[in-house]
Amino acid sequence: MSTFYTSTPQAQAHTEILLKTAVAPVWFEDRSAMSNILLDEGSQKSFISEDLAAQLQLKPCGNSTISLSTFGNANQNVRHMDKAQITLEIETGGFIPMDVLIVPRIAAPLSNVTNVIASKLPYLKGLRLANPVTEDRKFELSLLIGADYYWSIVQDHVIRGDGPTAVKSRLGYLLSGPMHTFTGEQSSTGMFNVLIQHQQEERSLEKFWDLESIGVKADELETTTMKDFNDEYETKCITYQDNRYTAKLPWRNDFNELPTNYNVTLRRTCNMIDRLKKDTNMLKMYGDIIKDQKRRGFIERVTENGNQSNRIHYIPHHAVKKGLIYDSYTYSL
Question: When you count CB atoms within 10 A of the terminal residue's CB, does the N or C end of the chain come out lower?
Fold first, then answer.
């Protein structure tokens, strides 16, 4: 929406909502890095971004299966995520061990401007804020602390006023709630003002709740569309030649291009090989199966080069041992 003013504009009231954010060091073994934290009691688990995990050279200690659904959607998606253990350094110099799940990205960046304004409010002056005032306008989240550790950090003392509420925590005071600001420019001439802030805020909130930011997107295909897709797939994508069926992967026509996923796949594959090295017989059997599959033409080596027409997407490999002895051994993607 656009508005044209021919007189001096008046300051406009504007409300933003602060979320509980903090900045604190996190540790893995003898390595540390600063983390931008969101404390969210509405999340059952805690998450760490792949970027922060890479800085810490974090080593997964297992995996966890969780069910996720988009905001307002009853459908759930099952996800398998690497789990790791980190240590959060608190204000007094102590430490809180935490189990976290590794995700590509936690959420879209939050605005950091309102924190600067809030710190100047009379009833908040002198408080040591968990999210220090900086010149950075964006707050890129790298750690989400859910309800599993929320009350290990948040304490009882609350300060209220005409603005956001301050809650004491072991990281400093956390600010949350509505923050009223005023916008407008002093001018004696006409100006053209494009009012799009409200739409941007709605989109930011939508991005925050959209689970696509951690790699999950609900399937939006209608039943009729799926039927047409299945019919086309059967006629065009499945062939029979030399006593062998060949079926293409059932890609959607309107899909977004997948990322390469190289770093995640490499890390998980290396971790799997490290586990297999503990049993030399199993590691040899695993290698023999891969060689046999390649010899029989079931798999082939893919090399990346500048002339590659299609972008490569890597899928982590997972070894599966069946039975108590090595007479039955297979693998799956």
Answer: C
Query: How far apart (Å, rounded) are the C-alpha atoms in residues 217 and 199?
Result: 22
Tokens, residue 241:
């030649």
Picking from 263, 210, 256, 218, the residue whose alpha carbon sits closest to that of residue 82 is 263
Q: What is the pLDDT of residues 151-188, one digit of tens each?
A: 999 999 999 988 889 999 999 999 988 877 654 444 33
Q: Cα separation of 17 and 165, whole Å? A: 11
pLDDT digits 0-9 by tens, 113-122:
656 677 778 8
Number of other residues whose CB lies within 10 A of the CB of residue 283: 15
Residue spans per domain, the chain: 2-213, 221-253, 256-300+311-333
Estimate to the nearest angstrom the gap between the alpha carbon of 149 and the chain centroid: 18
- Quote the CA–CA distance of 214 and 47 in Å, as a whole number: 10
The structure's pTM equals 0.52
Residue 243 burial (CB < 10 Å; 0-12/13-18/19+)?
A: exposed
d(CA 218, CA 15): 31
- Residue 65: closest CA among 37, 41, 45: 45
Query: For the chain, where are the E strands, in sequence order?
Result: 2-5, 12-18, 21-28, 31-39, 47-49, 62-68, 77-89, 95-103, 110-111, 138-139, 143-145, 154-159, 165-169, 172-183, 191-194, 238-241, 244-247, 318-321, 329-332
CB 245 within 8 A of CB 262: no
**Integer Cα distance of 178 and 7 in angstroms:** 30
List the structure tokens of 132.
């220090």
Give CA angle at 119 (206, 148), nearest 5°.
50
Distance in angstroms (rounded) separating the CA atoms of residues 58 and 84: 7
Helix, strand, coil percentages, rounded to 5, for the chain = 25, 35, 40
If 0-12 CB within 10 Å is exposed, 13-18 middle and 19+ buried, where does residue 82 land?
Answer: buried
Would you give the distance in Å from CA 31 to the centre of its chain? 22
Helix/strand/coil for 213: helix
